[in-house]
Design a protein that fits this description.
Length: about 80
């Protein structure tokens, strides 16, 4: 990870849900589903739901069926921060 790259806070077994403020001003909420898997919600789009996976290096983001928004594999924290 680049030193200038934003940190995406990830939930843990102790703190099952965390939020961060994206570049757009949207509050992004991550909820722990399983090890390395998180549900993503946006406060600005009630219809947005996605699954985020993190392998320790890059992110995969898979919007729920019917949700047309940011998604893909090999995403960096910067891409997520700026994409939301």
């Amino acid at each position: 990870m680049d030193a200038d790259e934003p940190q995406i806070p990830l939930p843990t077994a102790r703190e099952k849900e965390v939020s961060f403020l994206a570049r757009s001003g949207a509050v992004v909420t991550l909820r722990l589903i399983d090890t390395g898997r998180y549900e993503v919600k946006l406060d600005t789009r009630g219809d947005y739901t996605a699954e985020l996976r993190y392998d320790g290096d890059t992110f995969e983001l898979h919007p729920a069926p019917g949700v047309h928004a940011l998604g893909g594999t090999g995403l960096s924290a910067t891409q997520l921060y700026e994409g939301f």
